[in-house]
Specification:
This protein has 172 residues and is an alpha/beta fold. The protein is built from seven helices and five strands. A five-stranded parallel β-sheet has the order 2-3-1-4-5, with helices on both faces.
């Protein structure tokens, strides 16, 4: 039996970030299914150049990342004019990009989605597109782990566990 998600004190924008395969999109979809939240999977807006880089199993350049996060902020602001509640999913491996988003978007909370390496490996094995296990492992070292002030959601045991954690964050 699924618990009811109650985000009574959540800000109007939630930004889910973490390693590839951690389950950011899954968590975003859980939120979108239980409330009137619009879910924006920012990977949908990867540039053609970035998609080619992923297909070639190469890392993004810093310039590509910087440009992409400007694009994400523009998209968030566009969506905010249409939807009162917005959840965004994106790896956001670098602290400077997370800081940029936090400074550029009002009423936002950042949530670090994490899981075990074993589950990440299993999840990436089942993907038919996007980043491969080998590519995810190759770029894992560039992920900058957030400090303890950032909410941390453990995505291990499924939807009910996610709902319980989100309720603990936001249901006063």
């Amino acid at each position: 039996m699924s618990h009811l998600l109650q985000l009574t004190s959540a800000p109007s924008v939630l930004f889910l970030f973490g390693l590839s395969g951690a389950g950011k999109s899954f968590v975003g979809d859980v939120i979108g299914a239980h409330h009137d939240w619009f879910v924006y999977h920012a990977d949908d807006d990867l540039t053609n150049e970035m998609r080619q880089i992923i297909a070639a199993k190469q890392p993004f350049t810093e310039a590509m990342r910087d440009q992409f996060f400007c694009r994400i902020v523009d998209k968030i602001n566009d969506y905010r004019s249409l939807y009162p509640r917005l959840v965004i999913t994106q790896g956001a491996y670098k602290k400077k990009h997370r800081d940029y988003i936090r400074q550029s978007v009002d009423n936002i909370d950042m949530i670090y989605v994490t899981t075990s390496d074993k589950l990440i490996h299993q999840r990436l094995e089942y993907r038919t597109n996007g980043i491969s296990n080998a590519s995810a492992e190759a770029i894992k070292h560039i992920f900058e782990i957030p400090d303890e002030s950032v909410k941390k959601l453990h995505n291990v045991d499924g939807k009910d566990e996610i709902i319980q954690q989100l309720n603990a964050f936001y249901n006063n």
